[in-house]
């Protein structure tokens, strides 16, 4: 039985990675999960310099999900390269580095620093709803998506995944723009902009007022968008949004995703990623699927 | 470490909204240090984030963990409706606890330590006072309540207990600092847990009187293990992990040297 998938010439032992921001750089989860068992670890967004993030409260629970506005707090690329990359390699994990920035120059600087690093792929976050400059500002305009993709590609020796925002009218326009810019792969979806009001305190539940909605509540929206994108472009896709079980993961794969990323569910069970991998294997055994690639995009 | 299912040994109400629960959890009871917490997971999958609950006490001989918490929302309400024999999914013990403060206190010459708890910050101070007492340290205990008292009798086994209530129905009328002043309690070290205004007041009292002080903070948490960066507090210096002036309450805390925390 073959569970490995190949994206941009890189082989991953199974299709399950982590959604950026929910798994740190894997260090904290290694008490719960054997990182080498994952298809890859996708790290929390890293910028050219350390970012302090947003004021607290940064999160609020919602029905079947949560809203976050962490604001991409990160220790910066120097610390990341010195501490986190060697740690992940020591644990035999494939590494997808999520990159964030406030300007094209920020992204390019970080991408260049990562070009000679011992990492596998870069995921460019142009879709964070919680930072005022950069982030989503790049992700909601197809011209900006194409041009940032193009710039990043020019400066990267690693395959580039563009992470798309669901906060757009037509996801296929953004997917095509990334493809035109030279993207090697796509990740979708990032969180959906939401708001929660604390009626007891009569104010916003998160200090940033708005935040990104994630968790099982957004899963059907994400499956729909992955399906649309998969049918619009000729790029491998990492599907994500509300995966909590192997069934949720398989929906993305059947909709056309080559890999899937598990995010908010890690907060409900730190070992959920390996549970999902085991569930996918059991499903393949049950239905006599020899190769997981048979399932990718099998629902037309 | 993993999420484990434990069974509830007993469950009682200390007031209309305060629950006193003992859980059969040998490993947590054996390993927990004062000031740590556990993450408890809901059965209802519409509430997917764990609830951080402080460890009130442990009985390592019988493998029991005591949790005293207030019903504050859907999760704690679900836990409160459970019966003895029902199960709870828990990860723990988590966080640093008061270990570093104990080291500092033990290095002091015959210190007077004041243990302070306010409201639902009182429970974790029980195991803390117990541990200091059994280490032979002189402990004064100052507990601040709105009105209704709970756990205060149990604290008296471990030191002199002083009370304050907002309405003056028991002890000093006012807050824990008013209580310290009224009773002229001298401290070489303070260990405290309670609401943010209380901790702010204690930090400023400690700074004025040059008292070494550790405080336990709380914040909305998601992962509970230091990965998601939801529950940070501002720190006075750049933190060596985050590389910014932020510390993770769930992982670097919940107990901090009061002087490391920036309340501005």
SSE layout and pairing:
The complex is a heterodimer of chains A (300) and B (264).
Chain A: E1 5-7, E2 10-12, E3 16-18, E4 41-42, E5 59-62, E6 65-68, H1 77-90, E7 95-99, H2 104-115, E8 121-125, H3 136-139, H4 142-155, E9 160-163, H5 171-180, E10 185-188, E11 192-195, E12 197-198, E13 203-204, E14 210-214, H6 219-232, E15 237-240, H7 246-255, E16 259-262, H8 265-268, H9 272-287
Parallel strand pairs in A: 3-16, 4-7, 7-8, 8-9, 9-10, 10-15, 15-16
Antiparallel strand pairs in A: 1-2, 5-6, 6-14, 11-14, 12-13
Helix pairs in contact in A: 2-4, 4-5, 5-6, 6-7, 7-9
Chain B: E1 4-13, E2 18-24, H1 26-31, E3 37-41, E4 51-54, E5 57-59, E6 64-70, H2 74-80, E7 87-94, H3 99-106, E8 112-118, H4 123-134, E9 138-145, H5 152-155, E10 160-165, E11 172-173, H6 176-182, E12 189-193, H7 196-209, E13 212-216, E14 232-234, E15 246-248, E16 255-257
Parallel strand pairs in B: 8-9, 8-12, 9-10, 10-11, 12-13
Antiparallel strand pairs in B: 1-2, 1-7, 2-6, 3-4, 3-7, 5-6, 13-16, 14-15
Question: Could you explain the architecture of this structure?
Answer:
With 300 residues, chain A is of the alpha/beta class. Chain A has a single domain, classed as Alpha-Beta Barrel (TIM Barrel). Chain A contains nine helices and 16 strands. In chain A, the strands form four sheets. Chain A has an eight-stranded parallel beta sheet with strand order 3-16-15-10-9-8-7-4. Chain A has a four-stranded antiparallel beta sheet with strand order 5-6-14-11, with no helix packed on it. In chain A, strands 1-2 form a two-stranded antiparallel sheet. In chain A, β1 (5-7) and β2 (10-12) form a beta hairpin. In chain A, α5 crosses α6 (219-232), α6 runs parallel beside α7 and α7 (246-255) packs across α9 (272-287). Chain A is globular and about 55 Å long. By secondary structure, chain B is an alpha/beta fold. Chain B folds into three domains: 4-94, Translation factors (Elongation Factor Tu (Ef-tu), domain 3, Beta Barrel), CATH 2.40.30; 101-216, Nucleotide-binding domain of ferredoxin-NADP reductase (FNR) module (Rossmann fold, 3-Layer(aba) Sandwich); 219-256 and 260-264, Dihydroorotate dehydrogenase, electron transfer subunit (Dihydroorotate dehydrogenase B (pyrk subunit), domain 3, Ribbon). Helices cover 22% and strands 33% of the residues of chain B. Chain B contains seven helices and 16 strands. In chain B, strands 4-3-7-1-2-6-5 form a seven-stranded antiparallel beta sheet. In chain B, strands 11-10-9-8-12-13-16 form a seven-stranded mixed beta sheet, with helices on both faces. In chain B, strands 14-15 form a two-stranded antiparallel ribbon. In chain B, a hairpin with a 4-residue loop joins β5 and β6 (64-70). The longest helix of chain B is centred in the last third of the chain and has 14 residues, at 196-209. The mean pLDDT of chain B is 97.
């Amino acid at each position: 039985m073959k569970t490995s998938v190949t994206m941009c010439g890189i082989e991953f032992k199974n299709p399950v990675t982590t959604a950026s921001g929910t798994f740190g750089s894997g260090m904290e989860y290694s008490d719960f999960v054997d990182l080498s068992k994952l298809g890859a670890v996708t790290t929390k967004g890293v910028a050219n310099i350390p970012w302090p993030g947003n004021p607290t409260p940064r999160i609020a629970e919602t029905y079947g999900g949560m809203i976050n506005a962490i604001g991409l707090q990160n220790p910066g690329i120097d610390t990341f390269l010195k501490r986190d990359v060697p740690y992940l390699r020591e644990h035999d994990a494939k590494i997808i580095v999520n990159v964030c920035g406030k300007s094209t120059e920020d992204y390019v600087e970080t991408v260049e620093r990562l070009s000679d690093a011992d990492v596998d792929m870069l995921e460019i976050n142009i879709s964070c709803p919680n930072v005022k400059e950069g982030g989503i500002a790049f992700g909601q305009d197809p011209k900006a998506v194409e041009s940032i993709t193009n710039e990043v590609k020019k400066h990267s020796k690693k395959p580039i995944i563009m992470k798309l925002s669901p906060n757009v009218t037509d996801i296929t326009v953004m997917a095509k723009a990334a493809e035109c810019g030279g993207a090697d792969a796509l990740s979708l979806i990032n969180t959906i902009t939401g708001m929660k009001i604390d009626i007891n305190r009569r104010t916003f539940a998160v200090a940033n007022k708005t935040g990104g909605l994630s968790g099982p509540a957004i899963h059907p929206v994400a499956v729909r968008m992955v399906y649309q994108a998969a049918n619009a472009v000729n790029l491998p896709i990492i599907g994500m949004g509300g995966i909590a079980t192997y069934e949720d993961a398989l929906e993305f794969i059947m909709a056309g995703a080559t890999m899937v990323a598990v995010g908010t569910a890690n907060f409900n069970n730190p070992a959920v990623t390996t549970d999902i991998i085991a569930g996918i294997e059991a499903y393949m055994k049950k239905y006599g699927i020899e190769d997981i690639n048979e399932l990718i995009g099998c629902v037309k | 470490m993993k999420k484990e299912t434990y069974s509830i040994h007993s469950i009682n109400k200390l007031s209309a909204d305060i629950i006193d629960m003992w859980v059969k959890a040998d490993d947590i009871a054996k390993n927990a240090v004062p000031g740590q917490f556990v993450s408890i997971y809901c059965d209802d999958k519409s509430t997917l984030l764990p609830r951080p609950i402080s460890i009130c006490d442990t009985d390592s001989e019988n493998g029991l963990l005591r949790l005293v918490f207030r019903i504050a929302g859907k999760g704690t309400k679900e836990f409160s409706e459970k019966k003895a024999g029902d199960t709870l999914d828990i990860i723990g013990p988590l966080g640093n606890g008061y270990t570093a403060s104990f080291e500092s206190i033990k290095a002091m010459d015959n210190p007077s330590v004041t243990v302070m708890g306010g409201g639902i910050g009182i429970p974790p101070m029980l195991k803390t006072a117990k541990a200091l007492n059994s280490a032979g340290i002189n402990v004064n205990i100052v507990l601040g309540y709105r009105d209704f008292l709970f756990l205060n009798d149990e604290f008296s086994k471990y030191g002199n207990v002083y009370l304050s209530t907002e309405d003056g129905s028991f002890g000093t009328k006012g807050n824990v600092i008013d209580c310290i002043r009224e009773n002229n309690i001298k401290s070489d070290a303070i260990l405290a847990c309670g609401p943010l205004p209380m901790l702010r007041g204690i930090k400023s009292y400690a700074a004025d009187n040059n008292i070494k002080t550790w405080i336990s903070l709380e914040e909305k948490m998601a992962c509970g293990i230091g990965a998601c960066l939801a529950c940070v507090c501002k720190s006075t210096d750049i933190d060596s992990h985050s590389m910014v002036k932020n510390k993770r309450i769930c992982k670097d805390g919940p107990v901090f040297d009061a002087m490391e925390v920036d309340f501005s």
